[in-house]
Batch of 2 targets.
Target 1
Amino acid sequence: MNAPDRNLHVKAPGVSELARIVRVNEEIKAIVSTAFRINLMALNAIFLAKRAGNAALGFGVLSNELRRFAQELTRHMATLRDMTSGSVGSVTGVVQQQRTSAILAEAIRLSGDGVPGVREARRRGATRLAEQQACLRSLDLRLRSAVEETQQLVELGGVLARSAKIEAAYGGTFSPALMQVSTDFAEVIAQIKRSLEVLGKERLVKD
């Protein structure tokens, strides 16, 4: 009796999928927080440009564009967050179904056809598992597409930050302050790019 009990204690597969979706959600949260910082930085840059007057007109225009970029980035990340909001539950369902299928497979191996309904239960479970995995693959494809679109947006943000740094050189006495703001922009955008690279490599389900 003890031997079958030990054999039925199978390792639950699929835990890696749950770990991946948790990492995806954490990266999304980090980017949303960073986008909020960019919005505040852009407001500060606009204020500085107004104080600098005509010497910082170009910087002021770019600051407004960076603020629009931050707002657009926030919308992109809200979309990503909505896409993955229910994914933890979906992945948990897949993990549980995989666990059940493994237990049923072991029961069949140990008892053959001696337990009525086991094979049918396993077939039904396999169908549910396939459906759940198909949903996750669909979500995975949509998530990857959304990440690629966001990466293109962030590339634009990087161009704006570099242009702002060039314009900061013409800010007169405000040039050092404007240069610092533009440098901060570039660093934050680089941070977002790194987070998006992590997202781009993640998969909700194994290929």
Target 2
Amino acid sequence: MTQTATKTHPKKARGLRIIALLGVVALFGSLSIAVSVGAVAVPLETVWSILVNKIAPETITQDWSKGREAIVWNIRLPRAILACLVGAGLAMVGASLQAVTRNPLADPHLLGISAGGAFGAILALLHTGLFIGLLTVPLFAFLGSLAATLIVLAVSQFASATSADRLVLAGVAVSFIVMSAANVLIFLGDPKAAHTVVFWMLGGLGLAQWDQLMYPAVVLLLCGTYLWLKSSTLNAMTIGDETATTLGIPVARFRLTIFVIGALITGVMVAFSGIIGFVGLMIPHIVRMLVGGDYQRLLPISALCGAVFLVWADIIARTVMAPDDMPIGIVTGLIGGVFFVWLLRKRMGA
């Protein structure tokens, strides 16, 4: 028995390295294509020449126009990087929530966390103003996500909805309420400015800028590292509260911590991308089929796959109705809705 385990372990490690390597290659390939395609096509060779020249000036003789350089460097590359950050963040949040709720349907969108972030962003944009500069929208989005999370937990306790399925139902109910409140804010706001918040309602990456990418990047790095360091605790939580308690884990406090971190990541991502649903639901399930349920492997591979998925979702959103941009939330909603139905069917054993 021990001998067999010793033989299979290196194979699993090798398989994981291959999957990770393929994921990294897919990510760089996807980024290259994302920067290349669009209403104005830019050859891949030109894309990489521009990037190399930006990193090491005058390395390559410039034979492209200033317009193409601006499209690649100022518009498409920040947008593609933001897609990576948002996709990775939402995938990690979804995986973590599924562990602490022991519900495969847990997702920041279905639990109302994304709706709370959108509410906070809309409140800042239409009513309070950017009184602390660029940090105002992310801060309000986080506070909105956190408030929605606490409301979901309170509603589930009030309704005695302690089971995993009922927690998601409480989240869906709170999501509807919060989105209705957001619509009231839009109705009461300046009609001329109200059209701009459609971005937060439907999701989009068109507002990506270099000077703003540091906020989601730092939050993802810090919070993602914390989640990964707590992989063993998340593994224990998937087994059950009783088992986790016997292992010395403060279950209630740890669950609340994960919810707060999930609200922070989701709120900051929503502040820059709007509501993008189902990424946190789909990606962890797909990754489990590839690497299993160990969170030490699941979290980083989910982040990688989430980044690749959202880059391609943005490519579809930009090209299917070119030169107009389709909101990316529509693309993820269509794909995620089909996946959700398949997952429900699978859970019912059909």
